[in-house]
Design a protein that fits this description.
0% strand; endoplasmic reticulum; mainly alpha; transmembrane helix; EMC6-like; RCAF1; Rab5-interacting protein
């Protein structure tokens, strides 16, 4: 069965991630994986930043920079892809960033309020 015929569920994506260099990624599949990776990173960082009491612009920018670096590490090291085949660094780093920022801000605010008020 070809990749296009398989249902695209969590098990499908985990199987492709485990194949690393042997996996051939469709652009849409790669974007889906990066999008959901960014959402998880945003929620985890929001909880950590909130519980740690990190505030202000420095906290926000440290998330954005860390998130971009983790995303780059994910597609270069873990997934083993050549970014030029998928539109370059800019396209891959921007994938899921706005949603991730929203997830981060929500969890950061809720965690900070729960711990420090």
């Amino acid at each position: 069965m070809a990749d296009a015929d398989q249902p695209k569920n969590l098990a499908f994506y985990i199987g492709k991630i485990r194949q690393r260099d042997a996996a051939s990624w469709e652009k849409d599949d790669l974007q889906d994986v990066l999008y959901w990776f960014r959402q998880v990173v945003g929620i985890v960082f929001g909880l950590v930043w909130g519980f740690a009491g990190i505030t202000g612009f420095l906290g926000f920018m440290s998330f954005v920079i860390s998130s971009c670096m983790l995303t780059m590490a994910a597609y270069k090291s873990v997934l083993g892809i050549d970014e030029e085949d998928y539109g370059g660094h800019a396209d891959l780093i921007q994938e899921g960033l706005p949603g991730s920022i929203g997830s981060f801000l929500l969890t950061w605010t809720l965690a900070y309020t729960a711990m420090h008020s």
